[in-house]
Amino acid sequence: MPRAPEELRELVEGYLGELALTPELAPLEAPIRHGLGGKRVRPVLALASGEAVGAEAVAAVELVHSFSLVHDDLPALDNDTERRGRATVWAAYGEATAVLAGDALLGEAFRLALTYPRPDVARELVNATLAMIGGQQLDLAGGYADLAELHRLKTGALFSASVLCGLWAAGLPEGEHPPWRAFAAELGLLFQVVDDILDGDGYVLELGESKSRALADAAAERAQARLGEIDADTAVLSEIVSGLAARTS
Amino acid sequence: MPRAPEELRELVEGYLGELALTPELAPLEAPIRHGLGGKRVRPVLALASGEAVGAEAVAAVELVHSFSLVHDDLPALDNDTERRGRATVWAAYGEATAVLAGDALLGEAFRLALTYPRPDVARELVNATLAMIGGQQLDLAGGYADLAELHRLKTGALFSASVLCGLWAAGLPEGEHPPWRAFAAELGLLFQVVDDILDGDGYVLELGESKSRALADAAAERAQARLGEIDADTAVLSEIVSGLAARTS
Fold first, then answer.
1. Does B228 touch chain A (CB under 8 A)?
2. Is the minimum CB–CB distance between A27 and chain B shorter than 8 Å?
3. Residue B150 domain-assigned?
4. Shortest distance, CA B210 to any CA of chain A (angstroms)
5. In this predicted model, what pLDDT tens digit does every residue of B170-184 receive, in sequence order?
6. CA angle, A218 as apex, A216 and A223 as ends, to 5°?
7. Å from B32 to nearest chain A CA?
8. pTM of the model
9. Mind listing the pLDDT tens digit for each residue in A209-220?
10. What is the ipTM of this complex?
């Protein structure tokens, strides 16, 4: 029987709590673990997308996400001192350590992704990471033409990779990936629009709140439709879509 | 006939000049290329260690090195505004862009290392990268017990990986790696001690200049002896060892 999203989240917490870091990273262990807090949306997606994914791919997608937050919070970027009610890594450990802790999170993510016999998980993850970094710079420098393209890079790429890493890790043949990719793209859009509604920025500034809500609902509906086209038990993913559409934090 | 180190260096420059970045990194292209300047010691080693290494592994080791320099130069770390007579990336493009350009160099390095059918090149590179980051933090926080261990992490790991990535990329069976690893370890030590002699820090502060010189010469001698144990044409590597021992910049 498929497990509920909340059970998957607990499994993810277990994986991350037991994660053994590379021994040479011992001097960075505290800031690395500090930087690993979060809602676990992406690793839950990876777990829900593939059976027998393994802890490594699941942790890897979360570590890439954490890396991006640790660097984004830096004074030179977003200059955030708090995240989820706690001090950010640089506020707690200093800027230099936060730069290195972010680097270490990214490196560890690739190390974990490379524990699989084939390089597919790591390749999927590296492409998403590069898209994300490119999106960050586009956002920083301004002058991007299209908010949807910016979000596809900044948020969508790693959302898609979370689903796809789950599939690669579980060994699903590549020929069966396309409907999953289509699903993941809708999910990334859904997540970002709801985020903007909750924060009152991005799409809300561009479209207003009610049009943004309609966009989110349409993305959720398309995501559910895509799931219907997939020849697998996607009940948990369907529950995740509903949860993301309805979330209030 | 084996090519001279200078010819290999030109080959490396060619590879790096023609390197096509991930399209999504277009907004970071200028700072990434700016951060790619250097003496090319590591990629030349990769090229000299394996035949038919391919441009990707060669570029990957140099990109990891460049990533580390771009982040080390940041105001929160070494606060360097110049490197090799040019503005550092943060001095030229701003701190935020330098954080992202460093991240991008690391990500691109893994993407390149992952173009090989087997994950060995990428695994070798990720382990070295993590050791290097751990060493940086150890240096930053102080309190390390042993200068040799610090240098093994900060410099030696990527030196070894440069040689080993060359071997993996060329498909040399793992059973033949041990004498190469022993050679690479001596080479990393040699490089670092000579660096300290040229900069008047590190080993020179700990041992004085004449003992440091003796240490470098002993490392060079052992490196040459290790090469003698390798069943391959190592004439170019022998020339590289002599060049590193005698270098004045």
1. no
2. yes
3. no
4. 31
5. 999 999 999 999 999
6. 95
7. 11
8. 0.96
9. 999 999 999 999
10. 0.95
